[in-house]
């Protein structure tokens, strides 16, 4: 349709590299029908800051003028760009590790078989896990607090669970999101699973 109407097609490809690694195809295959693409360097790829905008020469020159007119220029940006180059050269293939970690956590949640905290394993493809909640039993802010809480004075909970803090984000009261990234190790994942299973166990036992 856009080609017929001569409308430029833009892709917000914030996590396009995660998609490419999961699908086993080059990024160019995913973006081949688009006129412009953006992708983020600071999410899965792990750079401290930055995003990249791609398009033809005329489009990029226009975007540069608009960026400058809006005060978006940055001086001495080479050190930021260097981190982005490193991420592109070294951190793409390892995204599969984040995907594996996400699957591991999702499987642990699923195995708890709680009707109040559920995950669709078929939809856990990359580094993001969407978990649905029964709001009548537990809502997102409550689960957020339970997973984040650390009680240094508690003596009835194993330290490896009690001293582990798991940070999630909530999309709305009945839905939370776990996101894995390059700074989360296999050991971190195992510790997080123990905390998650403990918290879900408390939710189940409160019936």
Automatic annotation (TrEMBL):
Pfam families the record matches: Beta_elim_lyase
MF annotations from Gene Ontology: L-allo-threonine aldolase activity
GO CC list: cytosol
GO biological process: glycine biosynthetic process; L-threonine catabolic process
Keyword Lyase: yes
Family affiliation: Belongs to the threonine aldolase family.
Protein name: Putative low-specificity L-threonine aldolase 2
Species of the source: Aphis craccivora (Cowpea aphid)
Lineage, opening ranks: Eukaryota, Metazoa, Ecdysozoa, Arthropoda, Hexapoda
